[in-house]
Write a structure and sequence with these properties.
single chain, 343 residues, alpha+beta, 60s Ribosomal Protein L30, Chain: A, five-stranded mixed beta sheet, elongated
């Protein structure tokens, strides 16, 4: 039995080695096919790449051919234009040839035309000569006028030089006259100063007993209180005798001072700075000072002094002798001044 079982086991078929061989063969075939596929893909890609390169090169060649075609067309247009221009020139040359031939055929007409043209040229030349002669005459006339103007300018320059010389002489004479006049005025001033000294000396003699009357500079000062009541322009009767003596001294002075000395006695009225009373006769110190100066002038005229030798002026409170605020300062500023001066 055991042998029988062994025989049964040996009689079974073992398929495994054949399957393995078939799978190995199949695997080799698959690998071979896959290799062929990859090789085909590689060669196909190479072929496609080469075709792209060829296509690009063909495109470049097409572009170059297009540019060449455009250039050929442009050149063709230029040639056509040149040909047309040449044809036009040829036509014009033919026309000129025909015209010249006609002119050659009509030599007589050309000769007449040339003769007429020569006549016109000669006429023009004659006219040009006439114009040239007129221009020369005008130039000669202008030269003569310029010469005359130069002579006039020279004459004016001589006259100007003479005038300048006379002006210098006149300036010299004026300067000399000015010096002489200054000397004469100085002499007159000196003479007037001498007469002023004499006049003041006489006034001192006339008013010798009055200590309140003084001389300030070139002026003889009379206090207003001596001449007028307070706030009035009526001369005090007590001073009328002194005014008469003063008028007599002035009249005597008129006979002594030469007539060529133009002199006057200026009578100046001054007040203090106390305002005049409101509602009174005098609205301001101006009015009061002027009224008092006029009153003295009128009194002297009434006593024989020539009116043209007297001048009245009012200064108000604006020329004080004393700037103080005391009663004595105010009294000193209220005054009448007599000054012998030139008119």
């Amino acid at each position: 039995m055991a042998l029988g079982r062994a025989r049964r086991r040996d009689t079974r078929t073992d398929y495994w080695p054949g399957f393995v061989d078939a799978m190995a063969t199949l695997l080799l075939v698959f690998i071979f096919l896959l290799s062929v596929f990859f090789l085909a893909q590689f060669f196909l890609s190479q072929e496609i790449s080469g075709k792209d390169t060829v296509l690009n090169r063909l495109n470049l060649q097409i572009a170059e051919l297009t540019e060449l075609l455009a250039l050929e067309r442009a050149g063709s247009r230029d040639l056509n234009e040149t040909l047309a221009s040449l044809q036009a020139n040829l036509s014009s040359a033919e026309d000129d040839r025909d015209r010249l031939q006609g002119l050659l055929d009509s030599n007589a007409g050309v000769a007449d035309a040339a003769s007429g043209r020569i006549d016109q040229l000669e006429t023009g030349l004659s006219d040009e000569r006439k114009v040239s002669q007129r221009a020369l005459a005008q130039v000669e006339l202008l030269n003569q006028q310029i010469s005359a103007l130069r002579r006039q300018i020279a004459g004016l320059e001589d006259a100007l030089d003479a005038s300048e010389n006379r002006d210098r002489e006149s300036q010299t004479k004026i300067a000399d006259l000015g010096r002489r006049l200054n000397v004469a005025l100085a002499q007159r001033v000196q003479e007037l100063s001498r007469y002023r000294s004499d006049f003041f000396g006489r006034l001192r003699e006339i008013l010798a007993g009055r200590s309140d009357i003084e001389i300030v500079g070139d002026r003889f000062v009379l206090p207003a209180a001596v001449l007028f009541p307070s706030g009035s322009d009526n001369i005090n009767a007590t001073f009328d005798a002194e005014l008469a003596k003063l008028a007599e001294a002035i009249v005597q002075l008129e006979t002594e001072i030469p007539e060529e000395i133009n002199w006057v006695i200026r009578v100046d009225g001054h007040t203090d700075k106390i305002p005049t009373s409101s509602g009174g006769r005098f609205r301001s110190n101006w009015d009061l000072s002027a009224a008092r100066a006029i009153a003295v002038v009128r009194s002297l005229i009434d006593k024989g002094v020539s009116a043209n030798r007297l001048v009245a002026a009012g200064f108000g409170e604006f020329s004080p002798l004393d700037d103080g605020e005391t009663t004595d300062a105010f009294a000193r500023n209220r005054r009448i001044e007599l000054k012998l001066t030139q008119q």
